[in-house]
Amino acid sequence: MQQLIPDSQVFDAEKVGETLMDITPGLPETDNFQHWPPWRPLVVETARRVLDYTGGTGLAQPAIPVRHFVLHAGQETLRGRIEGDTALGPSPFRLKYLERYAEAART
Q: I need a surface site. Which of 10, 31, 72, 91 has the fewest CB within 10 A?
């Protein structure tokens, strides 16, 4: 998608979660860093600060409406991608979310 949007950048919000996971001593136990209250506002603030610094296409201000899109893949496809991931290797964490995703996709 980046090639379709001039002057756009890719920002991986997972990296913000990884930073939170590196805090010592650790934050309260959770099964997903997205459940930590600081994660969402830090993602927005990080994206805003990077855009302020680099310019380009993106959120002009934090209050701008954001649209959520899902690129859907079936369970067999997702399972195959997770189990065959050569960069990260098979991930029990990611496999754990397959059923939750399937339920959310149905509703």
A: 10
